[in-house]
Design a protein that fits this description.
With 97 residues, the protein is mainly beta. 6% of the residues lie in helices and 40% in strands. It has one domain: Cupredoxins -  blue copper proteins (Immunoglobulin-like, Sandwich). The strands form two sheets. The chain has a four-stranded mixed β-sheet with strand order 2-1-4-6, with no helix packed on it. A four-stranded mixed β-sheet has the order 3-8-7-5, with no helix packed on it. It binds copper (II) ion.
Length: 97
């Protein structure tokens, strides 16, 4: 299913929400590809705070408390490596197409 060629307003009309769990010091899934207009929700399932911070500064959740979440709507295509600023070994990549 799906229409790989969908772009622009059509893609927005089909916007989806993706969840990235933050648990056990990892982003799960560590790599995610979405379309422009899609929403990504990072849900912190750990017992301490994390961030989802693009190394390019394109997005930055700032501190996400335990059991809290942060959402972001991807507007610009690109590949965005990100990390947790509190635990820089925690890394993920968001690809927006
Ligand atoms: Cu962290």
């Amino acid at each position: 299913m799906g229409f790989a060629m969908a772009t622009g307003a059509i893609a927005d009309a089909r916007a989806e929400t993706y969840v990235i769990a933050i648990e056990q010091m990892r982003f799960n899934p560590p790599a995610l590809t979405v379309n422009r207009g899609d929403q990504i929700v990072w849900v912190n399932k750990d017992l301490f705070a994390h961030t989802a911070s693009a190394t390019s500064k394109a997005f930055d959740s700032s501190s996400i408390a335990p059991n809290a979440s942060w959402h972001y709507v991807a507007r610009k295509a690109g590949s965005y490596p990100y990390l947790c600023t509190f635990h820089p070994a925690m890394r993920g990549t968001l690809v927006v197409r």
